[in-house]
Design goal:
Blueprint (H helix, E strand, L loop, with lengths): L8 H4 L43 H14 L3 E5 L2 H9 L7 E5 L4 H10 L6 E5 L4 H7 L4 E7 L11 H10 L3 E5 L4 H4 L9 E5 L13 E5 L2 H14 L5 H11 L2 H21 L5 E3 L9 H7 L6 E5 L3 H10 L4 E2 L9 E3 L11 H6 L6 E5 L5 H16 L4
Parallel strand pairs: 2-3, 2-4, 4-5, 5-6, 10-11
Antiparallel strand pairs: 1-7, 6-7, 8-9, 9-12, 11-12
Helix pairs in contact: 2-9, 12-14
Bound molecules: pyridoxal-5'-phosphate.
GO cellular component, one term: cytoplasm
EC number: 4.4.1.13
Protein name: cysteine-S-conjugate beta-lyase
Length: 390
């Protein structure tokens, strides 16, 4: 089973139990389309009985994910929101969640508009402020929900510290690890109980699949989540499982390259006169620079920056050539997003602005283009934006 126990992360991405198919030798996981499985005994059934409950292709992906995050069980869902929502089903009526205030817009919507109807309470806090976190705890607090670095202002939360607070109160820590992936950050090793992902982003990495992931370490929690995955039924289809596995193979090299370019671009934007603010935890002046260095391998491939006004931001976006201007992140091509109208469109304006998500803020997910080409592109677009000639 664990031939790969001692390999480094990069090697594990390729050399795992699904390296080749045991029956045929095929060096690619077979896409098993069957929705049901023949049972050869009258009353004792095999491990696979029905596709929603378990499917060999999904199982291969789930096993890989568990392994990469350092957990015991992984679960693949139809989207990041399906994974997050299913994990929230661990809660019951009357339970309370302490949430990071700059949480992903879809998670914000799920908690405030859906879970609230089922009697689940919440408090949003700035999770970089541990006193505020402690003050938000109630007798019925069952989950601490962390997203780090956060979206889109790249604030860094101390996973270990939050996990300790959670343990003291008998609550779980959920960490959305979408921005860094296990290649750069392993929340379970820092004390978290559930790691969540939008696998739509870096894990698959090619803007060609919508998928979600949950990984846990504790066996009992794994059984509860397996039960919920099967009950709620938002499982990932087999074609998409295969696409995520295909993407995973290059996760490390993709991130290495993108992080290198992101670092260059963060410095480029910082020294540019027309850029008001740069948010990137790899910059020394970032308030949680040291914490980021301690709990993750590096600062990742996503950064945000703010221009002087909405008008200039609009002109800048209209003149940028290389990145696609789109929702999403974590792909081989650079993606420029406008959080106020895209990822955080679901958040009321006042709430957005409280979180620093102004109408002049742009988020950049750095892909695999050459850094010089991106810098030239941004230099030109900034020049156009700030030029008085329309
Ligand atoms: C995209 C995203 C999600 C939601 O995932 P989907 O796959 O779009 O459902 C959740 N968290 C973060 C941080 C994300 O970027």
């Amino acid at each position: 089973m664990n031939e790969d126990c001692c390999y480094s992360f990069e090697t594990k991405l390729l050399h795992n139990n699904s390296k080749f198919d045991l029956t045929t030798g095929a060096v690619s996981v077979p896409i098993q389309h069957a929705s049901t499985f023949h049972q050869s005994s009258f009353d004792t059934y095999g491990k696979y009985d029905y596709g929603r409950s378990l499917n060999p292709t999904r199982e291969a992906l789930e096993e890989q994910l568990a392994h990469l995050e350092g957990g015991t069980r992984g679960f693949a869902f139809a989207s990041g929101m399906a994974a997050i929502s299913t994990a929230f089903l661990l809660l019951s009526k009357g339970d309370h969640v302490v949430m990071t205030e700059d949480v992903y817009g879809g998670t914000y919507r799920m908690v405030t508009e859906v879970l609230s109807r089922f009697g689940i309470e919440y408090t949003f806090v700035d999770m970089t402020d541990l006193d505020a976190v402690t003050k938000a705890v109630q007798a019925n607090t069952k989950v601490f929900y962390v997203e780090t670095p956060s979206n889109p202002t790249l604030k860094v939360t101390d996973i270990k510290a939050i996990s300790l607070i959670a343990k003291k109160h008998g609550a779980y820590t959920f960490v959305d690890n979408t921005f860094l992936t296990p290649a750069l950050q392993r929340p379970l090793q820092l004390g978290a109980d559930v790691v969540l992902h939008s696998a739509t982003k870096f894990l698959s990495g090619h803007s060609d699949v919508v998928a979600g992931v949950a990984v846990v370490r504790d066996e009992e929690l794994a059984n509860r989540l397996a039960f919920l995955q099967n009950s709620f039924g938002a499982v990932l289809g087999v074609q998409d499982c295969w696409l995520v596995m295909r993407g995973l193979k290059t996760l490390s090299v993709r991130l290495q390259q993108s992080v290198k370019t992101a670092t260059k671009l963060a410095h480029f934007f910082r020294q540019h006169d027309s850029v008001k603010n740069v948010y990137y935890p790899g910059l020394k002046e970032h308030p949680q620079y040291e914490l980021q260095k301690k709990q993750a391998l590096n600062a990742g491939a996503v950064l945000s920056f703010e221009l002087e006004s909405e008008e200039l931001t609009k002109k800048f976006v209209e003149n940028v050539r290389i990145p696609v201007f789109a929702v999403s992140l974590g792909a081989v091509e650079s993606i420029l997003s406008y959080p106020a109208k895209m990822s955080h469109g679901a958040m009321p304006k006042a709430e957005r602005e409280k979180r620093g998500i102004s109408n002049s803020l742009l988020r950049l997910s750095v892909g695999l283009e050459h850094a010089d080409d991106l810098m030239n592109d941004f230099t030109t677009a900034l020049t156009y934006a700030y030029s008085p000639i329309k």
